[in-house]
Specification:
The protein has about 70 residues and is mainly β. Helix content is about 5%, strand content about 45%.
C-alpha cells in the first residue's frame, strides 16, 4: 500500500496579471514485499511564459496610478 501527504504554496500571489511560481513538497510511504520505503519530493513550477518572452497583458481597467 501507499500513503502520502503534500503541501503546495504559491510564491507569487495569484492575480489576473501574474503567473505564480508554485512550490510543492510531497512525502510518500510505501509498503512492499521488500519492506517499507519513504520518498520525499520537492518541485518548483515556473511559468513557461517567462522563458519565451511572452508579455503579460496590461490591465484593461485603469486604476488610480494610470492617471
Amino acid at each position: 500500500g501507499v500513503a502520502g501527504v503534500g503541501l503546495t504554496y504559491d510564491l507569487i500571489e495569484r492575480h489576473q496579471d501574474t503567473q505564480p511560481w508554485t512550490v510543492s513538497v510531497l512525502v510518500r510511504r510505501a509498503w512492499t514485499d521488500a519492506g517499507a520505503r519513504t520518498d520525499v519530493s520537492f518541485d518548483v513550477t515556473v511559468p513557461l511564459a517567462m522563458f519565451f518572452g511572452t508579455r503579460i497583458p496590461a490591465p484593461t481597467n485603469g486604476g488610480p496610478s494610470s492617471k
